[in-house]
Structure formats: C-alpha cells, structure tokens
Amino acid sequence: MNTLSNANLVKPEQDEKTPEASQPEAPAPNFASTSVPRHLARGAVGFGLIAGAIALVPLVGPAALLAALPALIAFRGCPTCWMVGLAQTVSRSRLERRCVDGVCTIAKADGRRPNAEEARLDGP
Questions:
Q1: Cys-Cys link to 33, which of 9, 12, 39, 51 (CB 3.0-4.6 A)?
Q2: Whole-model pTM?
Q3: What is the pLDDT along the chain (124 residues), one digit of tens a residue?
Q4: How many angstroms from the chain centroid is the CA of residue 76?
C-alpha cells in the first residue's frame, strides 16, 4: 500500500515579510517642551514638590508623600522622563527629523521658532 505520510510533506517557503515587519513603527514618545526655560521651570516645580514631600514626612507623616503626585504631572511621568524631555527640547532647536516617502533623516534645524499651531500641538 502506497500512502503519504505527513512527515514527508514539505511546506512551501513563506515570504520573508512577516505581518509585524509590514506594520509602521509607533511614534516615539515626546516629552519635550516648547522651550528650554519652560522645561527647566517644570523641573524646578517637580523636584521642589518631591523635596518638599520628603522633608515634610517627619512633621506630617506618610501622608506628606501625596505632595509628590503633582510632581509626576510636572515631570510628565518620572524624573527620567523629564531628563529625556530636556534632551529632546535641547536637540529640537539643533536637529530636526524629516520623513519623506517613508525615509527619515536627521538634519540641522532651519532655526525658525514654532508657530502658534505647532506650539499648541507640542503641549506645555
């Protein structure tokens, strides 16, 4: 009797592109501010709230740590997020990412300040 065994079947080769590779990349998180002084002010508020919360623990107790929660809003996350945003804010005025037809390059910024619409989209 001549029967085919599943072990002897050869699967056809699949295309090299996988569904994951064909999907576009997600945009990188943006923690930058519209200006360096504004970003530094947010950092001063955030670090001040954290320092105040820690300093008040002996007087008020653990409830004083609730003052650190608004610091997370000022930092737009954690202190590391604030540092990343500082680097993005500083580099934004020097470098610019340009994407044309799916090809992205980094070039020197043209030196113009963002208009009101761009500043509104950028956030505080």
A1: 39
A2: 0.54
A3: 555 555 555 555 655 555 555 556 666 677 777 888 998 999 999 999 999 999 999 999 989 989 889 998 988 888 888 898 888 888 776 777 778 888 888 777 665 555 545 544 444 4
A4: 10
